[in-house]
């Protein structure tokens, strides 16, 4: 390969990045569909190895996933709504507890003055908020008529997700073969090897982390439910799904559950039981879920995870947050290989170095 050829790739890559940035508003259904297709493709391949045609395997996998999602929503939505109504009813009690008990305790231990919450002001704000919400609900038909194109666009984008997922699943392996055939023959082995390593990292992170999040949500929700906490489902789901950011879900969950336990039970024994639930959840995550579902193949530092999610959201909104960690995992693999090339380069060694072939043992180190 001549020295000028790598630079020729920068132009189409830069053009692709600019195009993706300009198309960000319409990328959501395609990004979500591609992600779901990537996650579901191993199940399809497993069914095909058992002798099932790909069309039937895709149909079975797709409709199984769709049925699980619909049943989960049908089961969880009434429970979540009931708990949200409970939160609304207990909000004044929470504010009074904060003023009368939490604030004095914090002041005595931290030796700082904390201003009390103005109950009247908060009440007026909530009253105004619900009044405004009622007015919005009353004018919903006129709002829909005024913004019908936006609503149609949103519904169309949501409807596209299962369609895109189905057709990508149907042709996933074929698309990969075509992309591989388009690569120049002299770089195809290297690119295929790098793509394989990226796929291993992405599979370990995306599928593994998704299972970890769902498992933690179940552990927290069931554990808090056994304790008797009325907000067990909401807090468990937030804590489990928030675990995609290291320690974020745990911190939010234990603080929310502690406050809810103090307000509901009013004794320290219940708080200790809530803490025990989160301690068990952390032990299960560290000793069972992370090693079994994710393993040590990711290599993403917790700070890098937080930065990737924030940067993705800042640059590309929801789509950026959705793709931040997969992109970060791929960049980590490429940087690892770039580090090996740099260590064998003349820039690092100071003397002319022969061409280097990256072995898997070098890249992994």
Describe, in plain words, how this protein is organized in 3D.
With 365 residues, the protein is mainly alpha-helical. The chain has helices at residues 5-22, 24-49, 54-110, 119-138, 140-146, 148-182, 188-227, 232-241, 248-264, 268-294, 302-343, 346-349, 360-364. The protein has a domain at 24-76 and 91-174. The chain is built from 13 helices and no strands. The chain is globular.
Which descriptors apply to this entry?
single chain; 365 residues; mainly alpha; 13 helices
* Residue share in β-strands: under 5%
- Give the count of helical stretches: 13
Helical proportion?
Answer: over 70%
Instruction: Give the mean pLDDT.
Output: 76
The shape, in one word, is globular
How far from one another are the termini?
Answer: 26 Å
- The tally of strands reads 0
| Main sheet properties | none
Alpha-carbon Rg, integer: 26 Å
What is the structural class? mainly alpha
The H-and-E topology, N to C, reads as HHHHHHHHHHHHH
Ranges with pLDDT <50 over ≥5 residues? 132-147
At a glance:
The chain has helices at residues 5-22, 24-49, 54-110, 119-138, 140-146, 148-182, 188-227, 232-241, 248-264, 268-294, 302-343, 346-349, 360-364. With 365 residues, the protein is mainly α. It starts with a helix and ends with a helix.
Helices and strands in order, then pairings?
Elements: H1 5-22, H2 24-49, H3 54-110, H4 119-138, H5 140-146, H6 148-182, H7 188-227, H8 232-241, H9 248-264, H10 268-294, H11 302-343, H12 346-349, H13 360-364
Helix pairs in contact: 2-3, 2-6, 2-11, 3-6, 7-8, 7-10, 7-11, 8-9, 9-10
């Amino acid at each position: 390969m001549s020295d000028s050829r790598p630079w020729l790739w920068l132009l189409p890559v830069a053009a692709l990045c600019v195009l993706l940035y300009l198309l960000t508003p319409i990328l959501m259904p395609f990004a979500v569909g591609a992600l779901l297709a990537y996650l579901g493709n191993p199940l399809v391949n497993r069914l095909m190895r058992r002798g099932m045609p790909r069309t039937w395997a895709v149909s079975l996998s797709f409709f199984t996933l769709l049925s699980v999602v619909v049943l989960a929503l049908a089961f969880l939505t009434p429970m979540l709504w009931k708990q949200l109504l409970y939160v609304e009813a207990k909000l004044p009690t929470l504010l009074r507890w904060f003023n009368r008990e939490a604030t004095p305790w914090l002041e005595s231990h931290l030796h700082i003055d904390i201003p009390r919450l103005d109950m009247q002001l908060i009440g007026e704000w909530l009253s105004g908020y619900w009044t405004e919400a009622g007015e919005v609900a009353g004018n919903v038909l006129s709002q829909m008529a005024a913004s019908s194109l936006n609503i149609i666009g949103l519904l169309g984008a949501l409807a596209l997700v299962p369609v895109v997922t189905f057709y990508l699943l149907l042709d996933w392996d074929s698309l990969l073969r075509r992309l591989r055939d388009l690569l120049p023959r002299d770089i195809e082995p290297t690119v295929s090897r790098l793509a394989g390593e990226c796929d291993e990292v992405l599979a370990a992170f995306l599928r593994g982390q998704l299972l970890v999040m769902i498992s933690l949500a179940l552990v927290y929700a069931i554990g808090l439910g056994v304790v008797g906490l009325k907000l067990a489902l909401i807090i468990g789901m937030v804590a489990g799904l928030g675990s995609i950011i290291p320690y974020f879900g745990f911190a939010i969950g234990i603080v929310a559950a502690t406050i809810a336990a103090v307000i509901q039970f009013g004794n320290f024994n219940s708080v200790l039981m809530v803490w025990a639930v989160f301690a068990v959840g952390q032990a299960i995550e560290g000793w069972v879920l992370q090693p079994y579902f994710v393993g040590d193949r990711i290599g993403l530092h917790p700070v890098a995870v937080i930065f990737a999610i924030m940067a993705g959201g800042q640059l590309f909104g929801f789509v950026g947050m959705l793709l931040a960690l997969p992109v970060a995992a791929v960049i980590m693999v490429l940087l690892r290989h770039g580090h090996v090339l740099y260590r064998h380069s003349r820039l690092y060694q100071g003397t002319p170095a022969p061409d280097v072939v990256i072995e898997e043992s070098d890249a992994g180190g």
